[in-house]
Amino acid sequence: MAEALELDLVEISPNAEPPVCKIIDYQKFIYQQKKKAKEMKANASKVVIKEIRFGPNTDEHDFQFKLKHAQSFLEEGAKVKAYVFFKGRSILFSEQGEKLLLRFALALEDFGKAEQLPKLEGKRMIMMLSPAKKK
After folding, report:
1. What domains, with CATH codes, occur in the chain?
2. Which of 59, 62, 102, 107 has the fewest Cβ atoms surrounding its Cβ within 10 A?
3. pTM above the 0.70 mark?
């Protein structure tokens, strides 16, 4: 039948019982599959991570300034990685850094939620925030 129509016999689903075949133009079939794959890739969401760095003794004005930036990042749909960087002996103020990050997460709870609580990794205390679901 395929030869009579000058088309190709293409096996669509080889694992089915019995195998599924179609009589179509093979080049057109390949083109449509590539097109679908490209469309799926374009629709896939890309995760953007923005970083915000604090010191253990970050002042109130700097905190508010960085809070506004984080708020805009979360509204755009990006994840925010907030961290406190300890230099030298400032690691002694690790509980102060933790309080700062928890306060930061509390101030941003309307825009996003904390994925992980602050945890110390080397000289950094890191916390991730993801954007809130839009209604």
Report:
1. 8-43 (no CATH), 49-131 (3.30.110.10)
2. 59
3. no
